[in-house]
Amino acid sequence: MIFKGLLPTEKRPSFLIINPFGIGDVLFSTPLIRNIKEYFPDSRIYYLCNKRAYPVLRFNPLIEKIFIYERDEFEEIKRVSKLKWVKKGFSFISEIRKENINVTIDLSLNSQYGFFSFLAGIRKRVGLDYKRRGCFLTRKIKIEGFESKHVADYYLDALRLLGIEPKPYNLEVYASKESREKVDNFLKGKVFREDLVIGIAPCGGKTLDKQAFRKRWPERKFSLLTERIISELGAKIFIFAGPDEAQDVERIISNINSDNIFNFTGLGLEEVIAL
């Protein structure tokens, strides 16, 4: 359903996209960014995310400015001094307010961020309403969760609240020139354009779910899968994992005798993007 009457009328409208979730969730919002820029070529797009997800957006040429919000940092300050917590909060909101943003697209599923937008003087606030947490939004879509379609499609639905029919653009991520050069130098003479390259992230990465390790596929099965891919497809395998997962990866690859495995455990996110 397309809603009418909420499209920005400014010559150069500005948007604040709010997504405080992880790297994948922020990546899933890039088609939303592309749609806004295609519909409003002269628009200014701002983004609020956390520190971990920042590299996904850092070099995106469509984004004017990124606001980094670390909830844990705010909570730590609050435990020490509520007065300092209030001052830091208003300082953060003032940074947003001075940009004179016209529209918030709130993907947070949390009333806190709608309140931030309200305090920042953003009059048009649209987004996803989960468990009635969209109380500060001026227009919203109720959802029960990300169940019936891809998360990126739920995010695109927010554009319909502005009267825009979204287009299904691909996900986008950009790397710095320095990261690309670093990766190119490492792979030179080892991996060629005609090679089949398959990436495997066996450990699932850092997560807030303390029981996530129970959902992992057994390490031995990752070993067998990797061996089979190499033997049957002749592929070169890139393994990605966080620094805390180094021992897990070593166990997976220790029994595989092949020069076609490249272990990128602990590699920075910007270099992973360049890969």
Taken together, the total number of domains comes to 2
Q: CATH topology of the largest domain, what is it called? A: Rossmann fold
CATH 4th-level superfamily of the largest domain = Glycogen Phosphorylase B
Compute the number of strand runs.
9
Distance between the termini: 39 Å
The helicity comes to 25-40%
Radius of gyration: 21 Å
Low-confidence stretches: none
Quaternary organization: single chain
Largest sheet, strands/sense/barrel: 6 strands, parallel
Which class do the helix and strand fractions yield? alpha/beta
Content of β-strand: 15-25%
**Whole-number mean pLDDT:** 92
What is the element layout, followed by pairings?
Elements lengths: L13 E5 L4 H6 L1 H10 L4 E6 L4 H4 L7 E4 L2 H10 L1 H16 L5 E4 L4 H9 L4 E7 L8 E5 L7 H10 L16 H11 L9 E4 L18 H15 L2 E4 L6 H8 L7 E3 L5 H6 L1
Parallel strand pairs: 1-2, 1-4, 2-3, 4-5, 5-6, 7-8, 8-9
Helix pairs in contact: 2-7, 4-5, 9-10
Structural features, described:
This protein is an alpha/beta fold. The protein has two domains: 14-160, 3-Layer(aba) Sandwich (Rossmann fold), CATH 3.40.50.2000; 177-274, Glycogen Phosphorylase B (Rossmann fold), CATH 3.40.50.2000. Helices cover 38% and strands 15% of the residues. The protein is built from eleven helices and nine strands. The strands form two sheets. It has a six-stranded parallel beta sheet. It has a three-stranded parallel beta sheet with strand order 7-8-9, covered by helices on one side. It is globular and about 60 Å long.
